[in-house]
Amino acid sequence: MAHTALFLLNSATLFDVGTGFSGANNYALVEYNPAMPPADKDTGDYDLTSDLWDVMIIDVRGSSADNLIENLNALDRYFYECQLWEQDHNYPSGKGELEFAPQNATNHGKAKIAGGWVEMPRDLLAAPILSNMIFRAVVHFKRRPYFLGALATLTPTTAATDNDLNNFAALPSISGVMAQTRIRLVAGSGNSASCKRALVAVRASRNPANFVHILQAEAYTARGAGVADLTDANLSPGSGVSGQRYTPTTTNKIMLLRWEVTANLDDQKGKFMPLVIYRDNAASLNFRLHFRNGLKFSAGNFSFQPFSTIDPLKTMFNAGTTELGVLAMNQITNPPGGSALATVNAIVYELWGEALAVTGSLDIDQVKLFPVGEAGNGMGLQSAEFGQAFGTNRVYFDARDDLDSAYIANASDVILALPIDLPEGAPILLPTLRAGFRVYGLVMQDVVGLYKYNRTTTLTIQTETQQVYVRMRGTT
Fold first, then answer.
1. How many domains does the chain have?
2. Which domain holds residue 51?
3. Chosen domain end from 104, 120, 145
4. Is the pTM of this model over 0.85?
5. Is residue 285 a contact partner of residue 325, using CB atoms and an 8 Å limit?
6. Per-residue confidence (pLDDT) for residue 337, from 0 to 100
7. Are residues 267 and 408 in the same domain?
8. Pairing, β 381-385 against β 424-425
9. Which residues contact 393 (CB under 8 A, 6 or more apart)?
């Protein structure tokens, strides 16, 4: 069984060099050892962003001297066309790729080609070559530093929760580097017709099942003066005491809610973006919020980091029925300051607030912690804002090469809209052999330029309504 070595143009085979001189095929692979991307001498990380140069030795034959030269020129011209398309994707030739798999291998990979040339030695017109009509060519080509496998659909291992998370099994071990993903979001119910902003993040570090992603207001450990239980079906989880209401008696900044996570502390490590879900019930916007995290070493002995934002953030949305405001509180790191957790009793989070006037009330539903950097170098969280509402259409976050990183598509996957600006964050990549990783999603609405969360708008990651597609990649 021969190696698979195909030079493709727009996914169609243009040169099959792996099967050798069979039938009308005029190209035969002699030698190919895929080049490896350079690795950082300090960290060992591969350079997966820079194209690399590779070499392949191919025998080329022709039915005549003219035909031999034509076949060599055709191969040389192919790499030149790849270069022109790489420089300008409007160039009509299209994308060139190398599809490769060693003999007896079942996993094929494709690497995009960005240019190259066929080395033409001075003995091209030598008598032995022309008499046999076969020339051994040295082909130099520039390609992506990795080979991409086929796109595969991952099935979640748990049912989705309200606008929240889903579990997935570990990816197969066919790659030493992280896999590219395409994540599909569909707003399942509620007022999804007005949703225009979406956010996704992945949790893959340590044991994702033990990570506390949501700090429910009613699950507080301590609360400040003027904070009381709130029963509201429009807050999560939708029944019983579902939130906390702060009715101010002072304009001083006070601690509103504190949460202490005492179990599985090692699984809380990482960098996170806190999103506060709130409702400002004052006649005019009246509250400002601050968030911080810290450690608890013993009863009453706390060590806190500075607040995640320099100044408190003002609420941006007045009261709605099902619509709640969202405040992004910058970024926090667990453990704060890089502290060891050996003698720590709890990871602590605090939400502070202040009223601009002693009037109205502030409802707190929850704080969501979205992981940042689970895929390395800040990758693993991405958001996008669109000029039109999602409705029942699909929102994609796509980390694959040469594709828009976010877009809206219909049920037939026809693209309907692109973001109004570059998506924020970085592409979602997934590590292999990491069991039980989780994908978190959030959709928000647009009201007079302000974004709000709708508790009744659900996101489900199920085979029919939301999917995560994974494209494995390897360096060889």
1. 3
2. 4-145
3. 145
4. no
5. no
6. 65
7. no
8. antiparallel
9. 186, 408, 409, 410, 411, 416
